[in-house]
Design goal:
The complex is a heterodimer. Chain A is an alpha/beta fold. Chain A has 8 helices and 10 strands. Chain A has a domain of 168 residues: P-loop containing nucleotide triphosphate hydrolases (Rossmann fold, 3-Layer(aba) Sandwich). Chain A has a 6-stranded mixed β-sheet with strand order 6-7-8-3-9-10, sandwiched between helices. Chain A has a 4-stranded antiparallel β-sheet with strand order 2-1-4-5, covered by helices on one side. The relative contact order of chain A is 0.18. Chain B is 54% helix and 19% strand. The longest helix of chain B has 45 residues. Classes of the chains: A alpha/beta, B alpha+beta. The structure holds adenosine-5'-triphosphate and magnesium ion.
Amino acid sequence: MVSVDGGKSGSLIQVRELDKTYRRGNEDIHVLQGLNLDVDQGDFVAFMGPSGSGKTTMLNLLGGLDVPTRGSVTVAGDEITHMSRGKLTEWRARHVGFIFQMYNLIPVLTAFQNVELPLLLTKLSKAERRKHVEAALAIVGLADRMHHFPRQLSGGQEQRVAIARAIVADPTFLLCDEPTGDLDRKSADEVMELLRRLVDEYGKTVLMVTHDPVVARIAKQTLHMEKGVLVEAGARQEVVSGGAS
Amino acid sequence: MPAKIFLGALITIVAIAALLLLLVIVGGIIAGLLAPLIGSVPVSYNFRSLRARWSSSVVAILGIAGTVGVFVAMLSLAHGFRATLVASGSADNALVMRAGSTSEMMGGITLDSIRVMQDKPGVARDANGAPLVTQEVVGVIPLPLIRTGSDANVQVRGVSSNVLQIRKFVKLERGRMFTPGLNEIVVGKNAASTYQGLTLGNTINFGGGHWRVVGIFDAGGSAFDSEVWCDQRILNQVLQRPPNVFQSATVHLTSPAAFQQFKDAVTSDPSLNLEVQREVDYYANQSSTMTRLITVLGGLVALIMAIGAVFGALNTMYSAVSERGREIATMRALGFSSWSVILSFLFESLLISLLAGILGCLAVLPLNGWTTSTMNFQTFSNLAFAFKVTFDLLLAGVAFALIMGVLGGILPALRAATRPVAVALREL
Ligand SMILES: Nc1ncnc2c1ncn2[C@@H]1O[C@H](COP(=O)(O)OP(=O)(O)OP(=O)(O)O)[C@@H](O)[C@H]1O
Ligand SMILES: [Mg+2]
């Protein structure tokens, strides 16, 4: 179960007192302010919140793409905020699967080659890589589209290839930034069904940002980004209903 | 004093900077070419990206190819010129001139000193025991060019009739040798094909006399191919020069090794005021002014073009990096290191320049053997020579291309690798 009060211990992902301040000109923009989060293995969390509230910023910090102004992120015992850039790059390759709103497939590479990319950073042989790529593409239901280029696929299919790429190296957790943001309802449903299966059948841990309440409902839990911290959906409703009564 | 220290510091800084640049270039080329082995970004990514952005790639390729073409053409021109003159000298010949002369056109040797000189040790003799020495006079005569009809200077060389035993690589191709004492000429094959009237059996006028063309000779691509030869005594008369004074003598030696002995014998004789050098050295020296001129002028042109080509490559690679900003960021998010990205882009830039280098070399290859002519500044006569495109020069051309590739690729590669991933991912 996720929690946002910072009091838990032994969770897979542990975020403590995370601050992120951007500087724009002479102005400091305090995006995250003392954010706490605990995520366990097998959790499926949706993050919601208004545009510009800092959801992508938080995901970037969790995925080691950016460094916080203050605070710590610990994943499976590794404190990542003090790692060197090189170490962090290696850590990302081993622990994080990224899924982006715009899929971010490499247009000149085939589906197979796109999915193979993370495995090029491992010691696997060519034959082993092929096996893993085929397995990942089979999970997302695109084994027959292996040799197609991204432009030959629909948006939903592209995103499923991207999911295959995210899971192929068996990372510790998946970070999805609006994975259905660019998809129609039907494709979005397929992608969400896939993510749900990854959690339920394969025990993956998924952290997902979304604007779509329908999509968020598929996650096991939803957290809201408010004024630089996360609040539980339930807690928020309590506050709202508490105020009404 | 402080000025001196400042200058010293400046020189040191410049030297260090030059060394660093060299290191970056060499290191960049080696690393970039080895990228498929040491980098982790698949090379098919680069090949296909080049193809996907082909119009931009083609612009860079043409820029570098053109530069390489000019560079190699210029070098092969200088090389061909030098080879033509060097081919004129034989290893076992010595050229004798009056001391202090820098060219055959100057100086005079008397018949008396030739008689003393030719009895020195090291001089080869023919079957009858006569020394193999040709005493020569040279002059220039204007003849109309076949191509334009306008006059150009052709070099006429008065030689001894045994000259073919001394310059053994010269062969009569058609006709016969001139008869001593007669107004007859033999013509080098380039001269025959360059000037009007130098055909076998024809008679031409110069120096107030009628001369019959009795033979055409092939001097193996040397400078003699551009000359006309006749009896040295007659030429002296016609040019109204003092009789029995010559400009040079070429001595056939018993062997190349006999040179030093011969030279020492001549220079140590107080009655002789002569200078002895290897014929090969003389001609190599003669070529140096022209070769340097071609190299410097051509080098300047190539340098200016290279600057343009590097900017072309730079532009292509920068736009590649910015167009692919999100791709690069994605790869780095997936865990590809900055180094892999740098190597990948260097490789791509080198790929462009390698293709361009090969293209540039292929473009100048047909020039090989193409004969052109220039003024020989020592003799003010026309000298025909051919472009000589050698394997070494082609390699130099490809290396030049790779240098341009690295210079054009390194900054964009660094930019690709250092751009913050989180920022680049936000781009559309
Ligand atoms: N590199 C940066 N420099 C300055 N400000 C930035 C930078 N990146 C993000 N910001 C600012 O930080 C705030 C949070 O941005 P972020 O992208 O995390 O929001 P978000 O919740 O993901 O929004 P959206 O729902 O629109 O994706 C915004 O005000 C944004 O303008
Ligand atoms: Mg966002």
